[in-house]
Design goal:
The complex is a heterodimer.
Chain A lengths: L6 H4 L16 H27 L7 H9 L6 H35 L11 H16 L4 H24 L7 H25 L1 H12 L7 H20 L1 H8 L2 H6 L4 H23 L4 H14 L3 H26 L7 H19 L6
Chain B lengths: L11 H46 L7 H9 L5 H34 L12 H16 L6 H21 L6 H25 L2 H12 L7 H28 L3 H6 L4 H23 L5 H13 L6 H22 L8 H19 L6
Helix pairs in contact in B: 1-2, 1-3, 1-12, 2-3, 3-8, 3-10, 3-11, 3-12, 4-5, 4-6, 4-7, 4-10, 5-6, 5-10, 8-10, 11-12, 11-13, 12-13
Classes of the chains: A mainly alpha, B mainly alpha.
């Protein structure tokens, strides 16, 4: 395994014409990007409306509007919309945006197209912390899991990045990917021991672990929101860095890019975004894997566009999955985390099949 | 032979001198590599053998190394024979076979798909097998016998075929295969998640135990079946090994050396799927063995070669060693399955290897 990671598989087709970060993107790419952004905003509004309307109890669009603008106390439709659907939709929007952006960042920084936000060990670190919370401390509420998930994610990222930066060649994409996978395996082992010996914890954990938007109180969102906002801002700022990193460390350095600082910035953003998303909706890594691929297929290899589009595509996919999950199993429902893969995998496979990139 | 051949015609003496020096350097390097290769292989074999003997010695009824070896040679009859041959040997042999199969499967996938993360547990083969088994355990309600291994085998093979059908489009690229595999893996994980949350928690725990990978179910019938499968597959791997190492040069290079890259790649992938499937069917998807074996073996060799034999040996050491730890070092009432220990031991080891190692990666 000599050319271990093909740098250009990560960026899809090789970055066109020189230092992407400094060259103005060609008019077609920019046009397509803007068009895609506009479409996505419309799509986002559509899925949000659908998410407010549909479920075990359907609410007419007019009633949704009334519920938002002039709620009547005692009206069951208004109650459902305001107390259940609005929090759920908002959490889907924020969680999806965080997951989508984190995925784009992760694929960029590891130069690996199969990287997902969980790769740094973030999901497993968060899961382990949640297990500790359930089994050791008897926490059973989403709000209670929140800080544990966040702390676990942060610790995992620090450990993985730290270990990958040891050794004389410093952080490389391959080391980052392998150390992340190793950390995940270690955490999973510990989690498995607990789950195999403690039935009560398994009973709680299996529901957290599939990932869902339901039954999250709105104040959880308030706690997480600042982190997500900072993370999204960092992500938008990181596009240029990722474009340079996609050319390889040496070229990036030659272009005057501080590779280490850039990478740290990106990893910090991933921790903020992914940590928030995991604590909000559970470990739904698949969104972060699919969404950047879709974005790349639309706008090409420029990471400034990929990150921006991923931010909008993430919530569209997550909310669509959530709505679909509510509709297929009425009056009960399927968790969004379960539906995401079923919706997303065919998209991913179709994209992969379409790409003619002979990158192997 | 690989000394400079384009040197100017004029200074012939100087050129020959240079060639001599270069040839000498090359020979020294090659000899050093060869020695390292041999040393690593021998150390791994000795380690694996020592672990195997240890596994046979330990237990409620302790035997000495001499007793174990005498029994294996057929000299000892009676109680020791029963303990070794009937109780401990099936589990050990199962561990060895599973280690070989996972080690090879991981090495094959990672080289042919050119991605160090592309082990069977990442590209969906293990998830397919797990889904098969979990469906059998939870949805159909199978309890024992061959139903669970067979449906695991079917699940893994189905995913392998599906991936091949999907990723093949006028040729197969590693990129396509890996991404499609991850997509399928997530779908499988969703199905498992669904079944785990919709069933009784006790049954979910049984399924979880299977999905962790364990050797506790070993008996001679199972071992014999797996042994036949591995005995068929390993020679086939040896057949494609040369083609695979040519493939590492890139498709065009390999093609100009008389290889048909597509055919070789298809064979390698098929073998990898088969090895991963039979091992998973027998012992469950023992975490991490397939992912770690090849990177560790290559790190130890450090010469950028395929390291198939060494990967298989690392697989054996990992599985057998982990099982010894799981059975004898950890508290017995935990009854930890082997898959937990492979992850808990292999993970930190790989991290350490990555953090402490020299320039060559994977």
């Amino acid at each position: 395994m000599s050319a271990v990671l093909d740098t250009d598989t990560a960026a899809g087709p090789a970055a066109p014409g020189g230092p992407v970060g400094r060259v103005r993107p060609g008019a077609p790419a920019a046009l397509r990007g803007l068009l895609a952004l506009a479409l996505l905003v419309v799509g986002l509004l559509a899925v949000s409306l659908a998410s407010l309307m549909w479920g075990a109890r359907d609410v007419a669009p007019g009633a949704v509007w009334d519920a938002l603008v002039s709620p009547v106390t005692g009206d069951n439709d208004h109650l459902v919309v305001r107390d259940l659907r609005v929090p759920r939709t908002l959490i889907g929007l924020v969680g999806g945006a965080a997951l989508g952006a984190a995925g784009a960042l992760m694929q960029g920084v590891t130069r690996n197209p199969i990287a997902d936000p969980g790769l740094l060990g973030i999901n497993s670190g968060a899961s382990l912390a949640v297990i500790v919370a359930i089994a050791g401390l008897g926490v059973t509420s989403t709000a209670g899991y929140l800080w544990f998930a966040f702390a676990g994610a942060a610790v995992a990222a620090v450990v993985v990045y730290g270990a990958a930066s040891l050794g004389w060649e410093g952080v490389t994409p391959v080391k980052l990917a392998l150390v992340g996978a190793a950390f995940t395996a270690t955490c999973t082992s510990v989690i498995t021991v607990v789950l195999l010996t403690d039935t009560r914890t398994l009973g709680e954990y299996r529901f957290w672990q599939v990932g869902s938007l339901a039954n999250r109180p709105l104040d959880v969102l308030g706690t997480v929101l600042p982190f997500v906002v900072v993370g999204l801002a960092l992500a938008l700022a990181a596009g240029r860095v990722l474009n340079a990193l996609a050319l390889g460390d040496d070229v990036a350095r030659g272009l005057g890019q501080d590779v280490t600082r850039g990478r740290l910035l990106v990893v910090a953003a991933v921790v903020l975004l992914c940590g928030s998303a995991v604590s909000l909706v559970g470990p739904i890594a698949f969104i972060g894997l699919v969404v950047p691929h879709v974005a790349r297929a639309v706008v090409g290899p420029d990471y400034r566009w990929i990150v921006a589009l991923s931010m909008l595509l993430g919530p569209v996919l997550l909310l669509a999955a959530d709505v679909a999950g509510r509709l297929v199993a009425r009056p009960s429902e399927l968790e969004a985390g379960l539906v995401v893969a079923v919706l997303g995998a065919p998209v991913l496979i179709a994209l992969v099949r379409r790409s003619r990139a002979v990158a192997a | 032979m690989s000394a400079p051949t384009l040197a100017p015609e004029a200074d012939r003496a100087a050129r020959e001198a240079r060639q001599a020096v270069a040839g000498e350097g090359l020979r020294t390097t090659r000899r050093r590599r060869h020695r390292r290769r041999l040393l690593v292989t021998v150390v791994l074999v000795v380690l694996a053998a020592a672990l195997c003997v240890t596994a046979l010695m330990l237990g409620d009824f302790r035997l000495s190394a001499g007793e174990v070896l005498r029994t294996l040679a057929g000299a000892d009859q009676g109680a020791a024979r029963f303990i070794v041959v009937e109780l401990r040997l099936p589990r050990l042999v199962l561990g060895v076979l599973v280690g070989v199969a996972f080690g090879l499967a991981g090495a094959l996938f990672q080289s042919v798909l050119r991605n160090p993360l592309a082990s069977p547990d990442v590209i969906g083969i293990s998830q397919g097998a797990s889904t098969g088994a979990v469906v059998a355990l939870l949805a159909v309600g199978a309890t024992s016998g061959y139903v669970v291994p067979l449906s695991a085998l079917a699940g893994g093979a189905l995913v392998g075929l599906l991936l091949y059908a999907v990723a093949w489009r006028g040729g197969m690229t590693g990129h396509r295969f890996v991404l499609a595999g991850i997509g399928v893996a997530y779908v499988c994980t969703s199905v498992i998640g669904y079944l785990l949350t919709r069933n009784d928690v006790k049954e979910a725990q049984v399924a979880l135990l299977w999905m962790t990978g364990s050797l506790g179910q070993a008996d001679w019938a199972l071992v014999r079946t797996l042994a036949v499968a591995v005995a068929v597959l390993v020679p086939l791997v040896a057949c494609v090994a040369r083609g695979l190492s040519l493939l590492m040069l890139g498709d065009e290079q390999a093609g100009s050396l008389g290889l048909r890259p597509e055919v070789t790649r298809a064979c390698v992938v098929a073998l990898g799927v088969a090895l991963a499937c039979v091992a998973t069917a027998a012992a469950g998807p023992v975490a991490f063995v397939a992912l770690t074996a090849a990177p560790v073996a290559r790190r130890l060799l450090g010469d950028g070669t395929l390291a198939l034999v060494q990967s298989a040996l690392v697989g054996v050491v990992l599985v057998v060693g982990a099982d010894v730890v799981a059975q004898h070092l950890l508290p017995a009432d935990l009854a930890v399955p082997v898959g937990v220990v492979t992850g808990a031991v292999g993970g930190p080891y790989l991290i350490w290897l990555m953090a402490s190692g020299r320039a060559r990666t994977a």
